[in-house]
Amino acid sequence: MAARNSRSVEQVRLELEAEREGLAQAVDTLRAGVKEATDVSAKIRENLPAATAGAVAIGFLLAGGIGATMRLFARRSREGDEVLRVGRYVIVDRE
C-alpha cells in the first residue's frame, strides 16, 4: 500500500503556486530571449554600412563585374583612337 505524505493540503498549494510563478517567469525570460534572437532588422541596422558594402560587392561579383571591368581596360589599351561612335558600334583608327 502507498505511504501517506506528511505535507498538509495548504503546504502543497503553496508549493504549487511557487512552482507556477517560477514557471511563468521562466517562460517570460524565454520569450524575451527569443524575441532578441530573431530581431534580424535590429542586427542589420547595427551593421548597416558593412551590410551595404557586402551587398554591393556580392552584386558586383554576381553581375560579372570583375571580368567586365578587366575586359574594358584590356580592350582600351589595345585599341587605337576612336574615330566615330554610333550606339554601341565604334570605328577605331589602329595606326
Keywords:
single chain; mainly alpha; 4 helices; 2 strands; rod-shaped
Overview of the structural elements:
The protein is 68% helix and 12% strand. It is mainly alpha-helical. It has one domain (9-93). The radius of gyration is 35 Å and the shape is rod-shaped. The termini are far apart.
Set down the secondary structure blueprint:
Elements: H1 9-37, H2 40-46, H3 48-62, H4 65-78, E1 81-86, E2 89-93
Antiparallel strand pairs: 1-2
- Rg, nearest Å: 35 Å
| Poorly predicted segments | none
Q: Quote the average pLDDT.
A: 80
Strand proportion: 5-15%
Biggest β-sheet description: 2 strands, antiparallel
Shape: rod-shaped
What's the number of domains? Answer: 1
Task: Give the strand order of the largest sheet, numbering strands 1, 2, ... along the chain.
Answer: 1-2
Number of helices: 4
- Helix-strand topology string: HHHHEE
Please provide the count of β strands.
2
- Give the oligomer, counting copies of the same chain as homo and different chains as hetero: single chain
Head-to-tail CA distance between termini: 112 Å
Helix content: 55-70%
- Helix-strand makeup class: mainly alpha
